[in-house]
Design brief:
By secondary structure, this protein is of the alpha/beta class. It is 25% helix and 29% strand. The chain is built from four helices and eight strands. The protein is globular and about 50 Å long. It starts with a strand and ends with a strand.
Amino acid sequence: MTIQIDIKAREMEVNDRLNDYVVSKAEKLERYLDGITKATIELTYVKSARQVSDRQNVEITVSGKGFVLRSEERSDDIYVAFDSALEKLHRRIEKFKGKRNRKRGDGLTVAESVYESFEPMDEEAEEPVIIRRKKFTLIPMDEYEAILQGDLTGHEDFFVFYNMNTDSVNVLYKRRDGNYGLIETEIG
């Protein structure tokens, strides 16, 4: 099975050399994990970055049936940023392969085992501006899988998922004490 590779460039041109480099390395991803169907690589030049070493930004997102893995790296060289992001993705793939079949031993859900205290955000800012939109497909999973997917996609602070046990959209968030909270939604 071949991987569908989608390369997106922002504020930069992708020449043939860079395109060939990215495609040749991305095609090898299926060696690390069976079932990868799509790889999206975003190459961005951030002219306004505070440090020169943060100007070249690479985000790699791979997906397949039941998983989404993501990595992001910055550098002053687009090739170095891509290689670093790819190495980070390899580590996440290994972590995913090792942990995806393990379960929690106490039989409790995350919601039952973590004391939930959610404090609403301050509304001091006037007219907030949405500067980026992302669209993604919700994959049914349980709370444990959501913790794992959040970690593997690099979204350690929060993760939105479709809870297959409650048939609702939930938000899993990391608390300051290192534990997790779960926001369960209902239509009212």
